[in-house]
Amino acid sequence: MILHEQLLQILAFLGFSVVLVSLFQKLGLGTILGYLAAGILIGPMGLGLIADFQFVQHIAEFGVVFLLFMIGLELQPRKLWSLRKTLIGFGGMQILFCTVVFTVIGYQLGIPWASAAVVGFALSLSSTAFALQSLAERKVLNTEFGRASFAILLMQDVVAIPALAVIPSLGLVAANTPSVNWGGAIAIFIGLAISSRFLMGRFLQVVAETRSRELFTGVTLLIVIGVAFLMESVGLSMALGAFLAGVLLSESEYRHELEADLEPFKGLLMGLFFVSVGMSVKLSLLLQAPAMILSLLVGYMVLKGLLIFAVGRIMKLHSQAANNLSVYLVQGGEFAFVIFGVGQSAQVISADWTQRFTLVVTLSMIASPLIIVLNEKIQAWIACKSPAAGGREFDKFEETNNPVIIAGFGRFGQIFGRILRTQDIPFTAIEHDTEQIELLRRFGNKVYYGDAARKEILEAAGIRNAKFFILAVDDVETSNRIAQILKEDYPHVQVFARARNRQHNFDLLDAGVKSIRRETLDSSIHLSGQLLIAMGTPEARAHAIIERFRRHDELMLLEQFKVRHDQKSFIDVSRQAAQQLAQVLKEDAEKTYIEPQAGEKGPSDVVVGGPPRSDVH
């Protein structure tokens, strides 16, 4: 009978989660809100399908443990050090401003100083999962405000870890808070540092050599749960232990394999964690005191948005970027739920205020997607009313029947223009940088001022009459947006695109672009060939090596594109390709090579090592 009830609870969790998460994703509201909604429905305040709420909470804690381990894996010490100015500037300032203001307001609401400080810090945090997902879905993560958002979220994650260890010591009833064995904690940390430096790499190598995916996954789980248990045994949080383990393994060559193995567990357990949060949300509070809850919600989001906007302006972001920064980070974060839970357990925060603020953070996450959409609508309306930020109107196109349109007339697009002029082929050049346009016009170039990422500008430029489109804009996000517009609305146009890097190349392939060239590939390959010649390699062989490398790299890129969403397979393909290239070039070097004489085949005709191998990726 007990087993029957447990199976029903599992079915309720999985069934409601699958349906609601799918629905919320289709609505563009994100998976987190889907899990929260599932928790509200099956929890005691909803249908009451889950009876053992405490057991669910204990299991859900492991979701936070795995999340922090994954965050630790990403926080390589050298990477953090290189980002220190951005982290401290954007992230440190945002946390400080928000924490201080919310702490003062909390104290004015009658919350003791220690409790108000914990509440203020919790409310200063934003949702890493939600914000990054929203930025990635809209392809704005590589923009100026996208990078600033990432810096703030990263700093919040870093600061939240020690906060989880400190909060229990602020408890009003010390007897309920286990004492910390600091000597044991230091010993564990030193042991972890030594083992990760000298033992763990070799141990993981031995495990990897067994080629057993199940064994590697089991070892990964053992590491995470084992370190979490050690930290819990000395009075510190399991999450802190998992985070430290992740940081110490972040430099390991097996870091990506660890991430790939833990991703399913992290996703499932984090889903369970958010379901447990939803089960604890008391919607009855909203019905009992709607004015108070809505006032707290509106005041929280407006004030937090203004503070983040101020941080963006202080850090020299222009107004629109600072506005976008505040819009994407205005919601409360998942760590707030964790901090409220820890604070209530240690009796730092009262149960009443915990329930209120948990509801406010949940409602802020629900409102956040709507605010993002509203912000986009407002910006689009403003753009239509005032096309240029400086008040300058976009140019009116005089010629709309040219067969070629060049979007972006910088150092890359100008090469196309110069070559087309030599062949008397008319083209229309569009550029968004006013200073660049003024410079080009001094040299007699005819360039139109406009934003090629807007359909009305493309229409005015004669996109329906064009046959070829040169996508040479510098900004990756803008380039991807233009490529998507061309794919959806103007499929008759053949696109030739410039890619910033491999990931940009993948995005353009996704958008249906077939003719793509990475901007530094040709120059770096050509210069590498000159280096080989200067070091004594015969010229014909150097050219053959470079050509072999070019063909191999293009084949590998296509293979990587097929598995780009599977990190494990992506790494495997990359490693296999690198090994195959090294083997092919080694075989070529071992073969007898004769420098061509006058009248014989030149370097461009020489094939070293036979025809290209079809199995090279």
Characteristic terms for this protein:
mainly alpha; single chain; 617 residues; 6-stranded parallel beta sheet; globular; disordered C terminus
Report what the structure shows.
It is a single chain. The chain has 617 residues and is mainly alpha-helical. It is 68% helix and 4% strand. It has 26 helices and 6 strands. A 6-stranded parallel β-sheet has the order 3-2-1-4-5-6, with helices on both faces. Helix 6 runs antiparallel to helix 17. The C terminus is likely disordered.
End-to-end CA span: 56 Å
Mean pLDDT reading: 76
Query: What's the total count of β strands?
Result: 6
Radius of gyration: 29 Å
Total count of helical runs of at least 4 residues? 26
The residue ranges in which pLDDT falls below 50 over 5 or more consecutive positions are 172-178, 386-391, 592-617
Biggest sheet, in brief?
6 strands, parallel
Structural class: mainly alpha
In short:
Residues 172-178, 386-391 and 592-617 have low confidence and may be disordered. This protein has helices spanning 2-26, 31-42, 53-74, 77-82, 84-108, 113-124, 128-137, 144-166, 182-198, 200-209, 213-233, 238-248, 255-280, 284-288, 290-314, 319-328, 334-345, 351-385, 413-422, 434-442, 455-460, 476-489, 502-510, 521-534, 539-562, 567-590, and strands at 404-407, 427-431, 448-449, 468-471, 494-499, 515-518.
Topology, element by element:
Layout: H1 2-26, H2 31-42, H3 53-74, H4 77-82, H5 84-108, H6 113-124, H7 128-137, H8 144-166, H9 182-198, H10 200-209, H11 213-233, H12 238-248, H13 255-280, H14 284-288, H15 290-314, H16 319-328, H17 334-345, H18 351-385, E1 404-407, H19 413-422, E2 427-431, H20 434-442, E3 448-449, H21 455-460, E4 468-471, H22 476-489, E5 494-499, H23 502-510, E6 515-518, H24 521-534, H25 539-562, H26 567-590
Parallel strand pairs: 1-2, 1-4, 2-3, 4-5, 5-6
Helix pairs in contact: 1-2, 2-13, 3-12, 3-13, 5-6, 5-8, 5-15, 6-17, 7-8, 8-16, 8-17, 11-12, 15-16, 15-18, 17-18, 24-25, 25-26
